[in-house]
Write a structure and sequence with these properties.
By secondary structure, this protein is an alpha/beta fold. It has a domain at 10-53 and 115-120 and 128-252: TIM Barrel (Alpha-Beta Barrel). The protein contains eleven helices and nine strands. It has helices spanning 14-18, 40-49, 74-77, 88-91, 106-113, 132-142, 155-164, 187-194, 199-202, 217-224, 237-243; strands at 24-26, 52-59, 65-67, 119-123, 148-152, 170-174, 206-210, 229-234, 249-252. Helix 2 (40-49) links the parallel strand 1 and strand 2. It is globular.
Length: 257
């Protein structure tokens, strides 16, 4: 089932068209023995290969949006502690996985990428909260004229963008909400997220769904009514082929998409 033709909303510009391809490199085009995830090197490699880019953003203790996935610094930098407790000048001293790559700001990444790739920016705001990360990301995006969108699991974050900056393309993330990562949420919230009941709160322009949810009748119904669906994180060509009839694009890693 394909998405019904939908005119590209003028406020989204080329970001709407690029939502449908090329494929999107998860945390950039990184490799275990090359450029680390969410590094400038990984984003440069994605641009050179003609892919889109997915990345993650957190807010620092002094209010800057930086590109990094985990809440804790240890896995990627070898340093204990939470990213949110560090100011930008402290984070500048750290290196990713023993390379020369540092933790970039969102603004630095977008300057590096320019118009070469569509950038999916995952907001790591905790569920139910809205705050300085949304504000800082919106400031950065309003200064950037390349194609971008914001994604994330927090429907209230999307609602904030819908109310304050509706010209910024938004994609609601979801997965099955039945693993240890969701244990801090109530069973009622987990069920509502898994059933996409939060779409009414988020008012997204598209859905970004974990590959194991697909195919799914509810996602197909949204898609048939004009809401594109992107699948994440696809790790094999076989998996991409399985998903192809059910999605408009994929976020991938670990193979040539």
């Amino acid at each position: 089932m394909k998405t019904k033709p939908r005119p590209a909303p003028s406020e989204f510009g080329e970001a709407w068209e690029l939502l449908f391809g090329p494929a999107v490199a998860h945390r950039g085009l990184w490799t275990p023995d090359g450029a680390p995830e969410n590094s400038l090197g990984a984003f440069q490699a994605a641009c050179a290969a003609g892919y889109g880019i997915e990345l993650d953003v957190h807010i620092t203790a002094d209010g800057e949006a930086v590109v990094f996935h985990d809440h804790q610094l240890q896995r990627m930098t070898g340093v204990e502690g939470r990213l949110a407790d560090r100011a930008l000048h402290d984070l500048r001293e750290l290196r990713l996985k023993g390379t020369d790559e540092g933790i970039p700001t969102l603004a630095e990444v977008l300057v590096e990428v320019g118009h070469r790739a569509m950038v999916h920016i995952e907001l790591k705001t905790p569920f139910g909260e809205v705050g300085p990360l949304e504000k800082r990301v919106s400031e950065v995006l309003l200064d950037h004229n390349g194609p971008t969108c914001v994604i994330g699991f927090n429907p209230y974050s999307h609602a904030w963008f819908a109310d304050h900056h509706p010209q910024i393309l938004r994609g609601l993330n979801s997965y099955r909400w039945n693993d240890d990562n969701a244990r801090h949420l109530s069973p009622e919230i987990r069920r509502s997220m898994a059933d996409l009941e939060q779409v009414e709160i988020a008012r997204p322009d598209f859905l970004s769904l974990e590959r194991g949810m697909l195919p799914w009748d509810k996602a197909a119904a949204f898609r048939a009514n004009g809401m594109p669906v992107v699948a994440w994180t696809v790790r094999t060509e076989k998996e991409r082929e399985r998903l192809r009839p059910h999605v408009d694009n994929v976020i991938f890693e670990g193979f040539e998409a």
